[in-house]
Specification:
Mean pLDDT: 89
Structural class: alpha/beta
Shape: globular
Helix content: 25-40%
Number of helices: 3
CATH architecture: Sandwich
Largest sheet: 4 strands, mixed
Radius of gyration: 14 Å
Length: 125
């Protein structure tokens, strides 16, 4: 059996909200906030608007949008899969979904030992 292991995924509700935001703003990107300003919320920006730094890490894509996290945040979250979901309420003040009355939310689950070993072998390449 082949394991499909991704560091970040999104729920169908999040994919739908990404489509709504993309229809209004064009291509988007995400960055997992490190706690400043809006807590540790996944922030959605127009693609290219947030300058990605040397310590930022691309975790993957959700619904075709790149998803980044800072190096220090990655150290904290490295043993988990981030699951981007949606809840009702006001989004982050800089995040594009705010006016929609919904906000992106990060949930997580620990990788199994098998998944962790597979990720370690893949990422050493």
């Amino acid at each position: 059996m082949t394991l499909d292991i991704r560091r970040v995924i999104c729920t169908p509700a999040a994919a739908e909200l990404i489509n709504v935001v993309r229809a209004k703003h064009g291509p988007v990107m995400f960055h997992q906030s490190g706690g400043c300003c809006d807590g540790s919320a996944p922030m959605c920006y127009p693609a290219g608007e947030l300058q990605i730094g040397d310590i930022d890490r691309l975790l993957g894509e959700i619904n075709g949008a790149p998803f980044y996290i800072s190096g220090p945040q990655f150290q904290y979250w490295q043993h988990t899969q981030l699951i981007i979901d949606v809840v009702s309420g006001t989004g982050g003040m800089f995040s594009l979904e705010g006016p929609e009355g919904k906000r992106f939310l990060t949930r997580s689950r620990l990788f199994t030992d098998e998944e962790g070993q597979k990720l370690a072998s893949i990422e050493k390449v």
